[in-house]
Amino acid sequence: MRHAIILVLDGLRRDMLAEALTPTLVGHAESAETFPRHRSVFPSATRVVSSSLATGCHPARHELAGNSLVLIEDGRLVAHDAGHPGFLQHKRRITGRSLAMPTMAERLKEHGGAVIYSNVSPGAAYAHDPDGHGIVYHRAGSFGPGRVPLTDWDAKRISADIAGDRTMAERFIADVMLGARKPALGVLWLAEPDISSHAHPLGSPSHLKSIRGADATAALVIAAATRARESGDDILLVVASDHGHQTVAGVIDIDAELVRAGLKDGHGSGDVLAVSNGTSALVYVHPDYAPRVEAIGLFLRAQPWVGDVIGTERLGEIGQTARHGLAFAIDMASTEEPNEHGIPGKSFAAKPEAGKPDRMGCGQHGGLARYEQSPFLMMQGTGFAAGATRDEPSSAVDIAPTVLHHLGVAHEPLDGRALQQR
Fold first, then answer.
1. Which residues of 221-254 are buried (b: 16+ CB within 10 A; e: fewer)?
2. Model pLDDT for residues 110-154, shown as the tens digit of each residue
3. Number of helices and strands (H, E) in the chain?
4. SS3 state of residue 5
């Protein structure tokens, strides 16, 4: 039988793969095809990447514009955290759809089904199957077809750390890879090393410990794939990360800066909203205040904490579109400067919403800087050459068409393409 397994080690940047730190992944690269020019999407943030990986499309088509974003509701700009467990259901009530493109779970519901185990934010987990076509296990709530709550396993006890990742992986292996269920697609998304990257300086002992832990958990999944193949299964094994990290060099309150410049009426006003996506931001302007757009663009482009300001005429270049008043995407300024542990890459971060920390000197992502746009990708299975290195660019949007091609499921053209060598 043909199956596809996707293992994601959240937040592991490509240049951190090394024999002393990630022996499993380094060894696995010898039996898989690797993609050293693999990139994330924009924003390079997990909820967006989850949606792009699940649909094979950029935000312009699947419509989840950011980890945080704005919807126009009853004529007002309303900011949302897309990580909230109920956000995608709310979005469907407001816009008529949770995601605007089918997920792999939907495409595979009549072709062997999909089972997702996720240890990251609820919004990122549910983006793989927001409408209940397959099975999703997450500590905020697990659901089967029709979004019927599941009681066969209590994911609430799973912590977002090395130990929780390992427990979830062991269950995933027993249930999806070596058990009786064996769906067409199984997705296992680990919390580490992303959790530790946000909490500790990159390259610090705590950060390196989380990478070693993620590598050890990956070893369990890779070994299970080998055993499943020995039993006759034709498995496409995708081992990847979703983004990398930059070190936070400074935190900027963009809304406050716009207020001081006279371009936003005040704190909490609904005329202009700048929502943080880590080292990037999305700036929304209510249609009634469209005459301000030009001045806002001129102001932002003059700021030292801005790397690039992408207006509506260029949003397509980064896979975005002007929807719900989106006027600008900001890539925060970055440098190659190393941190205290010698890990290169520093960026300014946009101040997150109240109550969310953004720790100076620790890891962050979301923008277009070199290291946050340096996830890794390894493909093992039919159509991929063991030990080969593919020099062509690839992205998270290429994973869905690659999986669907392996499983023989037809689909309309997506933003990504199947990566198998013809």
1. bbebbeebeeeebebbbbbbbbbbbbbbbebbeb
2. 999 999 999 999 999 999 999 999 999 999 999 999 999 999 998
3. 12, 21
4. strand
Question: Do 155 and 33 lie in a common domain?
Answer: yes
Q: Domain with 38 in it: what CATH number?
A: 3.40.720.10
Distance CA 27, CA 21 (A): 12
Cβ neighbourhood burial of 178 (10 Å; 0-12, 13-18, 19+): middle
Give yes or no: residues 251 and 209 share one domain: no
Same domain for 230 and 256, yes or no, is no
The residue segments making up the domain with residue 360 are: 247-364
Question: Residue 410: is it exposed, middle or buried by C-beta count within 10 angstroms (0-12/13-18/19+)?
Answer: exposed
Question: How many structural domains compose the chain?
Answer: 2
Average pLDDT, stretch 192-211? 98
DSSP string, 181-200: ---SEEEEEE-TTHHHHHHS
Do 267 and 159 share a domain, yes or no?
A: no
* pLDDT on residue 359: 85
Q: Letter for the amino acid at 168?
A: M
